[in-house]
Amino acid sequence: MDFASRRNLVLAVVALFTGAVTGVTVTRHWLRSAKRVAARTDPAALATIDGRVMTAAGSPLGGATVVLGWDVDADQRAGERVPVATVRARPDGAFHIAKVPPGRYRLRAHAPEHADGRLRIEVHPGEALTTSVRLAHAETLKGQVVDHKGQPIPGARVLVWSLADPAERPRETTSDDAGRFVLGGLTRGLHRLIAEAPGFGSVEQGPIEVPAAAPVLRMQTEGHSITGVVTAGGVPVGGARVVIGGENLTPSRETQTRADGRFLFGGLGAGGYVLRAVRGGEVSRPSLEVMLDHSGDRPPVVKLQLAQGWMISGRVVDDEGRPLPSAEVRVEALPGDDPLPEIVRPDSHGNWRAGPLPAGEYRLTPRQPGFVARRPAQLMLGSSVVGGDRLQVLELVRGADIFGQVADRKGAAVAGATVRCLVPGSEDLSVIADRLPLAAEAAALPSGSGHALGRTRSTSTDTGGRFQLSDMLPGRVFVEVDRAGSVPYRSGELSLLPGQRLELPPIVLRDGVRVTGQVLDDTGAPVEGARVAIRAAPGAVERTPGVVALTDGGGRFATEALDGRHELAVSAAGMQSDTRTIQVAPSAPPDVTIRLVRADAVLEGSVRDGLGRPLARARVLAWPAPLGPDDPGDRRAPLASTVTDGGGHFRLTRLPRGAISVEVNHGDYPLVARSAEVGQSGAPALTIDVPVPGRIEGEVREKVTGAVISTYRIEARGPDGRTAGATRRNGSGFVLPRLLPGRWTLSVRAPGYGPTEQTVDVPMATTLGETSVRDLRVELVSN
Q: How far is residue 245's CA from residue 271's CA, in Å, rounded to a whole number?
C-alpha cells in the first residue's frame, strides 16, 4: 500500500472514530452585527478571544502556552503557517488574545506532562469570543523497531498521528541502539505509527489504542553489519571512537573499539557507508565507501589507521560583531558531499573548536535559525598549513524575508506559480540540507519548507496567490515568477537589509506564446543543462525582461514569451555559445533546434602577486563571458577550474573557443577576474597579477563633539562593485581587511544619526596583511 492509500485509510478511520471535540466549551457575546468583512486591516473588524486552560479535572493550568493559527483546511491562507498569536496563560489559567482578524482558526494549548488540547473556532468581525481548553494528562508510548529477523534497527524515525486530529503534525522520535523508542505527550485514543529507516523502507501499524502494550514495528528486509579494526603504528587500539555515515544514515552513528581494536555496526540498511576513527589528537582518514546490498555477500573488514590530526578553532558572530553561542558550525571535507561532517557548537562567547581532522581541504559553514551565512570559509590543513592555525571568524547575518501576491491580468489569484529569489548573475536552484520528510509527512508541509544553502530561494504560491521567501541573505537580489502559460516575470533589482521584511507590490502575470526547442551537440546528442536566454531582438521594442530556460535530459526546453521578434542566446558548459533571431507569434508557436559545437581549447598561464612573486594554491576558474553589458554571464557552474602549483602555473582544459572570463580566488588576496581569448594559435600564456590587498583601520565618531559612536553598521563597495563587511574592534574602531586596491565607498549607518558615505583610495599594501590606510575617521551628524 502506497502512502497516498495509507493517508486515505487514516482519514477513513477518523470518520468512524471521531466526533465533536470534547472537553471544550465556546460561548459568544456579540458586540455588533457580525457581517463577514474582507478587510483584515479594519480595526472595527478585529475581534478578541478570552479563554482559560484547565486540567481534565477542571483545575486551572497556569503557565500553559496557547497558540492561535489559521485553519489551513478551511482558509485560503493555507500557506500562512506562522502563528497569528502565541500567549502564555496566567496562574489562574486565563489568557487573552486581541486584534484577531475574522476567519477560521485552530487554537492549541500545551503544557509539560499534559497532552495538547486543540479546537477549531470561527471568529466573526468585531466579536468577543470566550472559550476554554482542557488538557488531559499525557500518555507515553514505548516500542521497538526491528528488521525481518527481529534484530534491532538503531536510528529509525518513528512518527505517530492521533486519529482524533490527523491534520496535526505528527510527533516524532528516533530509535536508540537497541531499536527502542519512546513517544510522550500523547492523548488517549486511537493513533497510527509509521517507522522509516534508510535502506529498509518503511512500515505502518495501527490503529493503536493509547495507552497500549509496547508495539514492535518489523521491517520487511534484513539488516546488515560492518566490522573493522582500528590501529596506530600497526598496533590495535582500544577505546577509539568510530563514526559511520552515509547517504542513508543521517545523523551519523558511533561506537567504541574493544581492547583488541575491533568494532561492529549492526542494523544497517542497504546503501553506501564511510567510516572514520578518532582517539585523542589522532584521527584516521575516511575509509573507502563500503557498499551493502541484499545479495548476501559480507563486506570486507574495514581497517582504519590513526595518525596525528589537525585542529581548527574560531568564533561565530552576527552582522554587528556580537557572539552567537546558539549557532552550530558544520565542518565538511572537500571536494563533494562529506558523509562524515563534524558539527560543533560555540561556547557562551561564540568560540568553537573542531578536530582532530585529517589533512585536506575543508569548508566551514555556520548555521542558526533566522540567520544566513554571509559566506562559507574554506581552508587547507596539512604539512603546509593554510588557515588552520588562524582564528576562523564566521559571520551570520539576520535573514531578510520577501513576501507578496501573484495574480493574472483579470485580477484572479495565481496558485502554484514558482517564485525564485536570486542574486544578479545566479540561476542555480537552492539545495535542501535537511533530511527529507516521509511522503505522508511531506503532504502536510507548506511549499518552500526546509532550509537552503547559498543565496537562492524557491517556493510556490498558495491558493490565494501568496508567497513568502524567508532567510534571504541581505544584499542585491531580484525575484522571478514562472507559471506554464504565462510570460515569466522578473522584478527590478532589490536591496535587502538584515532582518528586513519586504512586501512587494502585486505581481501580474501576462499570457504568453509557447516557445519550445531542443539543444544538440555537434554529434546530434542532446545537451542537458544548456542555458537558453530569450530577449527582445536588437531594434525591437523591449516589452518584457529576458526569459531564461534550462534544457532537460533530452536537451529540450519550453517557456513563454510575448509575440514579436526575439533574440535567442544558447550557452552550455564545454560548448561554444550560439545566438539567433526568432519570430514569436500566437498563430505559429516556434519550435527551434540549436546545435552547439564542443569546446576543446586549452588555456595555460601563471598567477603572480602584486610584488611579482608566484602565487601558489590559488583557485583558477573559467566562466562564460557576459553576453552583453547587462548580462553578468552564466554563473551556474564554471567551464573549468584548477589550482596553481608551487610556481603559480595553471592549465585549464576543455574550454570553448572565444572570449571567456578567468577568475583567481585565493583566501588571502582579493578576488580578481580577467578576460581572455581562447583557441587562437600562437597566443601567449596568460599572466594574471593579483594585487597585495589593502587594509583600512578606522573609527566612527560624532562630527560636532567628536564623541565615540559604538553602535553602527558599515558596508564597503569596492572598485569592482563587490561589497565587504567590517570587523569591529573595541570602542568605535573597525577594520576592513583584504581589500582590492582602488577607490572604495563606505556607507555608515547608526541609530540616531543620518547615514553618510565616504570614499577612500586604498593603496596596495607592501606586505601581506599590512594596513595601508590608518586612522580613518568617519563622522556622523545626529538627526
A: 11
